[in-house]
Amino acid sequence: MNKVVKILGAAAVVAGIAAGAGAYLLFSSPFTITETSRVYVDSDDTIDSLYNKVSDAGRPKHMRGFQLMTALKRFSKPRTGCYAIEPGENMFTLVRRLANGGQTPIQLKVPEVRTIKDMAQRLSTQLMLSADEIEEVLNDSIFMDSLGYKKETIPCLFIPNTYEAYWNMSARGLVNRLDKEKKAFWEGDRTAKAKSIGMTPEEVVTLASIVESETSYGPEKSRVAGLYKHRMDIDMPLQSDPTVIFAIGDFNIHRVTFEQLRFDSPYNTYRNQGLPPGPIRIPSIQGIDAVLNYEHNEYLYMCAKEDFSGSHNFTNSYSVHLQNAAKYQQALNRRGIMK
Question: 312 - beta bridge partners?
């Protein structure tokens, strides 16, 4: 009897040690990081590749707790997403979060870019999506039409800002989210202000895209917007060189030729009256607000200053404009800029 008691006691001690060791592996913090790190799990990941990602991101002293926890949960196929590893965290909470899909949101930055292709590329670097997947949805005319976008107005979907999102969101989920943010942006004051100046939100974004293609100098944007609004109000063609460059599709052009001004496209504001059918780039919030709050002026002409400061000379006199243009052309010649 005593022998049985001793054996049971020894077994209890062993079990206690094992339990304690297991608890230590699961509930102590093996990670050596001092700030939050992230693990990005995609659809191709296996438990082995996840093991390596956790090891690389968390720099743990050991991974035995990870192995024990994944075995206990029979966790074989990781769920996609972005998962944070916090300093001081233990394997139990991390693996449980990984198994349950408890993602950490990312800060998605929607940039100011020139083309939809550029936008898809920049967004794809922040998401599990490829640029091709994003472009495919944006080119899905039935889906985009259901949200109220034509091919020409798709750039209006994007309001450059930073948004909280999930790394593994679908392409349609991304577009729906951006559409929601765009509607929130225009809700209230901005839509009312657009109406008060006789423009739709899409027209405001289109004009803002021209303004920001003409100048990157912030204090000047409302003045440029006022110049173009003045032209629109008196039925004068906008005659914006950036619209010609967009139509041609060669963004390396610095000097637009008379032959290029005749390029046949609805985006060419030398050949067509009024605004083009859609934005020629994705403008910033500052650019959009510059149009909504444009400077009321009587300027009709603008030309980049010959000092290449990024600012412009403004005038309502065509003869003065020609003088300004000549100075700028001479400055280009001195710098050897021929195209």
Answer: 304
Cα within 13 Å of Cα(193), Cβ side: 14
Q: Higher-confidence residue: 119 or 254?
A: 119
State phi, psi for 10 to the nearest 5 degrees. Answer: -65, -40
> What rounded mean pLDDT belongs to the chain?
90
Whether residue 218 is predicted with pLDDT greater than 80 in this model: the reply is: yes
Residue 330 three-state SS? helix
pLDDT tens digits for range 94-144: 999 999 999 999 999 999 999 999 999 999 999 999 999 999 999 999 999
pLDDT at position 3: 55
CB 30 within 8 A of CB 62: yes
Structural domains of the chain, ranges and CATH numbers in brackets: 26-100 (3.30.1490), 106-186 (no CATH), 189-334 (no CATH)
DSSP string, 144-158: HHHTT--GGGGGGG-
State whether the Cα torsion 203-209-210-216 is positive or negative: positive
Q: What is the mean pLDDT of residues 36-47?
A: 94
Helices (H), the chain: 2-27, 47-58, 64-72, 91-100, 116-124, 131-138, 141-146, 171-186, 189-196, 201-214, 221-233, 241-248, 258-261, 285-292, 318-334
Q: What angle (nearest 5°) sits at the alpha carbon of residue 112, between those of residues 247 and 252?
A: 40
Pairing mode, if any, of strands 312-315 and 161-165? unpaired
Q: List, for residues 286-298, the tens digit of each pLDDT value.
A: 999 999 999 999 9
Q: Residue range 311-336: average pLDDT?
A: 89
What would the two tokens of residue 282 be? Answer: 């994705």
Residues contacting 255, CB < 8 A, separation 6+: 329, 332, 337, 338, 339
Nearest one of 205, 269, 216, 206 to 243, comparing CA atoms: 269
165: Cβ contacts below 8 Å, ≥ 6 apart: 105, 106, 108, 127, 174, 177
Q: Which of 240, 229, 221 is nearest to 311 (CA)?
A: 221
Which has more confidence, 208 or 253? 208
